[in-house]
Amino acid sequence: MRAELLLFFREPGSVFWVMAFPTLLLLVLGFIPSMTEPMDEMGGLSTVEAYVPVAVLLSMIMAGLMAMPPVITGYRERGVLRRMSTTPVRPAAVLGAQVGLHAVASLISAGLTLAVGRVLSDVALPRQVVGYLLTLLLAVVCVLALGALISALSPTTKIAQAVSISVFFPAMLAAGVYMPIQQMPDLMAGIMEALPFGAAAQALNQAAAGDWPDWAHLAVLALWTLLLSGTAARWFRWE
């Protein structure tokens, strides 16, 4: 785990995009006066308030889709996992370290985002803490399961990067990066809520407002997590 942590921090690009960029995005929005004003079309939320769960999810998407798959695929492509299978360090331990490392990085980024939103933009902290934490955990496990599936199906690092980018932009759309789900047409919003990041964004908004997340949104996250993790485990190869 310590070795993987050192390697992670030797890649400043990954550290920036996973742990700093979502917070900076919220910080920039907070300095635009019109972004802090409540809007009727978003249920009385300001744009900054609506973007807090988006920024939280963005860190997870960066970690699960852009940072982790090339690392794991690169290990397999270079024969690192195969060589480790002959040593006391098992390949599963390396994979577990990678998943745990990116999960922790995502959760730290989420904490920074909430803190910046509260201090600089006066965004209230989540009022339904248990529901918010449950949604966060489901979301981070789901996105890392998606990243593991990309790693499982990609024979080379370049292919993993190409697939990750192809999934990355639709994932950001579903999370509400381009447009908060509250502003989407009903049909489009319904489609986004059937996807894991759209469901997570809505559940985080509900928990932030003090309500327990809709069980339908939590069920969407749980089902996608089971599907993605099961498929990744089925198709993953050590070499």
Task: Give keywords.
ABC-2_transporter; membrane; 10 helices; transmembrane helix; ABC2_TM_bact-type; 239 residues; 0% strand; mainly alpha
Main beta sheet: strand number and arrangement?
none
List low-pLDDT spans: none
Q: In percent, how helical is the residue content?
A: over 70%
Order of helices and strands: HHHHHHHHHH
Query: Per the principal axes of the C-alpha atoms, what is the gross shape?
Result: elongated
- In percent terms, what proportion of residues is strand? under 5%
Whole-number tally of structural domains: 1
**What is the number of helices?**
10
Number of strands: 0
On the 0-100 scale, what is the average pLDDT?
82
Q: Helix/strand/pairing class, anyone? A: mainly alpha
Using only CA atoms, what is the Rg? 18 Å
Q: Give the N-terminus to C-terminus distance in angstroms.
A: 21 Å
Structure report:
It comes from Streptomyces bohaiensis. It is a multi-pass membrane protein. This is Transport permease protein. The chain crosses the membrane at residues 12-32, 52-72, 93-117, 129-150, 162-181, 215-236. The chain is mostly helical. The chain has one domain (2-235). It is 75% helix and 0% strand. α9 (196-208) packs antiparallel against α10. The model has no long low-confidence stretch (mean pLDDT 82).
Helices and strands, with pairings:
Blueprint: H1 2-9, H2 12-30, H3 47-77, H4 80-84, H5 91-121, H6 129-153, H7 157-175, H8 186-193, H9 196-208, H10 215-235
Helix pairs in contact: 2-3, 2-5, 3-5, 3-6, 3-7, 3-9, 5-6, 6-9, 6-10, 7-9, 8-9, 9-10
